């Protein structure tokens, strides 16, 4: 089965005793060839998805001046509101990022070993006029994690390995959580209308095991890469969530499951919005190809401790993408708000 269009998988049916063979075949083919599926009947109530997006959307729709108060007070790139401009100062993407735990104490209480809890020293940022947004975000996050667990069970099923082969049980998962807001963006630098000339988010694969993504908007902005390198749209299917395989899952399966490469192209007449929950096993997990996937030929993947990949993520990020002013803000522990060419963006 060669994938030319992503399957929409009824997750409850696919995990049931009556799962039709063609549904399981479609899930397996998409996981092996593309690394992206869409799922319905995933267990996240539509009302919860809407409530979270309406409330987080309200703050993202505020005037820029008001949103400045939602930037991380200490310049942390993965907390609160942040905009990033392209090289011409035009807004490409804005994000609202939420740390998994509010404080180191909360992380330890949830079972995180003390040595990892410092990841949560930088506070989350919530709007003063909607303090309970934190609770809604928590419920949406936890429901998304439930989807990741189900998709892992589905992949274990189609690969004919017990789900217990994946070391996720018993300890707190590591996640990150971001809301992406893409401006309507009509200009191109050379008059070209090619997708390559209007990318708002460049091609990449996530570093997660699985990423659960909700998207809303009025055009097909998200694309996934087919095995031949071409790009296939990931359409907005009402009620569906998207699930990307990340590079961690590829390593676990010794390369059998492809990491879902994806990108976002500009278009549409309203702001495109997406929310991603990046799901990983616990930080003390050594990530290496799992026994059922390593045959006599062995593996080229080196084992790594997840913590070693995560512990310097702010410094690593700033080294590659940080603007000088942003790096200075982080060093001095103050908020950073990017300069934009257009005042009202
Ligand atoms: O906005 C999207 O649909 C994709 C977002 C994404 O790839 C990411 O946040 O890693
Ligand atoms: Fe991504």
From TrEMBL:
Keywords: Antibiotic biosynthesis, Iron, Metal-binding, Oxidoreductase. Residues 172-281 form the Fe2OG dioxygenase domain. It holds the Pfam family 2OG-FeII_Oxy. It comes from the Bacteria. The keyword Zinc does not apply. Pathway: Antibiotic biosynthesis. Belongs to the iron/ascorbate-dependent oxidoreductase family. This is Fe2OG dioxygenase domain-containing protein. It comes from Microbispora corallina. The lineage of its organism: Bacteria, Bacillati, Actinomycetota, Actinomycetes, Streptosporangiales.
